[in-house]
Amino acid sequence: MGPCINMTDPTLTDGLEDLFEGYQRFRSEVWPERRKLFETLAREGQRPRALVIACSDSRVDPGMVFNAAPGEMFIVRNVANLVPPYRPDGDYHGTSAALEFAVCVLEVPRIIVLGHAMCGGVQALLRGFPPGARDFVEPWMTGIAAEARGRALACTPAEAGSVEAQCELETVKLSLRNLMTFPWVASRVEAGTLRLYGGSFDIRSGVLSRLVDGQYVPVT
Fold it and tell me: Regarding the domain with residue range 46-218, which homologous superfamily does it belong to in the CATH classification?
């Protein structure tokens, strides 16, 4: 059995003071107000209103964007908010596993794919991957998002605004198409018990746009 970690050791907490102070504020200010909610969630379990598939980018917090309370959203985050195609083999599929749990076990009624502006994964897909992101990031992006890259590069400048911005939007559309390759997603969509949505959050302006009939429209 390995040694226990002593969190009081200053060498282990160095640089985390702000996070621990945030936790103390949570305990003193937020927890008393939300205690009953957490007790209910612990007692009755979770029944999230939606599965949100978002990017791991630290600047994009789905809970903050949607002003959601604990228990309202089941959130999956990965590089560039990608959904891989259905491929039940012996490999490790974190996003697909979370999707299966949300749809087949929790029976969420909605799935939201949330993209965002200034996505680092999309930038690397278009401009090239740095040496430190080639073991997993490069095959993840090129293996799933090559179609989105091709569609963005094929757009005229007037259509795209910028290739990078267009590719960010195309990754959302691609993920929505890939969702429909999962048979238990497609069957629920066809039955009307599950609905799919796409959106994009601009971290520069704070504006959320929703995908409607193939076009992104700001949410008002």
Answer: Carbonic anhydrase (3.40.1050.10)
